[in-house]
Task: structure prediction
Amino acid sequence: MTPMLQQESLVKSAAVGRTNPLGATIVPGGVNFSVFSRNATGIELLFFDRVDDARPSRVVRVDPLTSRTYHYWHVFVPGIQAGQIYGFRAHGPFEPASGLRFDSSRVLMDPYARATAVPKGLFPSSSLCEGRKHCDGDEECGYRASHV
Result:
């Protein structure tokens, strides 16, 4: 795993959570997060205070022993409310020949998110992949963070 930055504070009060539904689900007392990854060796949930923050303010390491069921990574974080900006960091093999391109230096958006946040100036207009359903692996395309 990538070493945590000093500005990041590790959230210690997270609980196991549920596998379903996928994505971020507001429940009494907090939010349940669930994401699918067959080949990840680790998942981190990153919280940002503002959309333009370069580094997360809080990090939850999803425990693979207690918070992984089959290929579903899940965690409940108490106290989180609607509007919280978050993303994921996925750890795993970088084996392009096998179709695996894990890069734990990237912050990933929640593929099940209902809303996204994009910092101003993050992408030049030429790299927005306008009109494409997906981008080539070498292009910067997509959003950095999701909203609960």
